[in-house]
Amino acid sequence: MMSAEQNPFPTQPLSFTKQARFIQGQHLPIWKNWAGLIETGVVKTYTWNEQGNTIILGYWGKGELVGQALSVVSPYQVECCTPVEAQQVPATLWSSWGECLSQRCQQSDPPLSPLVGGM
Q1: How many angstroms separate the CA atoms of 67 and 91, rounded?
Q2: Nearest alpha carbon to residue 117 among 12, 47, 20, 38
Q3: Phi-psi bin for 55: left (phi > 0), alpha (psi -120 to 50), beta?
Q4: What are the chain's domains?
Q5: What are the pLDDT digits (tens) for 6-59?
Q6: Any idea of the CA torsion for 73, 60, 69, 106, to the nearest 10 degrees?
Q7: What share of the chain is helix, strand, coil (3-state, %, to 5)?
Q8: SS3 of residue 79 by DSSP
Q9: For the whole model, what pTM was predicted?
Q10: In contact, 80 and 25? CB cutoff 8 Å
Q11: pLDDT tens, 58-85?
Q12: What CA–CA distance (Å, rounded) separates 1 from 49?
């Protein structure tokens, strides 16, 4: 796990991205070639299997990047567990976050079978 000093994600709003606020229970939009950078609050990412069982992929907070474009899982949803402020970050910026982003995405898509449960 990375310490706060090693976190390559921005801590200040990016001036060229769109910022949005979401309420608890609201879903972040699924953007093609964009991801959501969580500024405040907590979200959970989840999917579901053929039987309709919810599979929670992870919980994410400040400074973390979430989005369908970062995952190999489909279907995929991002739901706010608390009020959330997030920014849209274009895929063109992901390469600048390089290895950290790649490692984090791999950690967020664990084998699904042991995670079957309710929301």
Answers
A1: 11
A2: 47
A3: beta
A4: 17-109 (2.60.120.10)
A5: 444 444 444 445 788 999 999 998 878 888 899 999 999 999 999 999 999 999
A6: -60
A7: 25, 35, 45
A8: strand
A9: 0.68
A10: yes
A11: 999 999 999 988 888 999 999 999 999 9
A12: 29
The pairing of beta strand 77-80 with beta strand 19-22 = unpaired
Beta strands at 65-66 and 34-40: parallel, antiparallel or unpaired: antiparallel
Alpha helices in 1-119 (DSSP H): 91-108
Closest alpha carbon to 40 in 13, 18, 14, 58: 13
Sign of the alpha-carbon dihedral angle for 95, 96, 99, 102: negative
Strand order in the sheet with 84-90: 19-22, 84-90, 34-40, 65-66
Angle at 75 between CA 74 and CA 76, to 5 degrees: 95
**How do 19-22 and 65-66 pair as beta strands?**
unpaired
Q: What is the DSSP letter of 115?
A: G
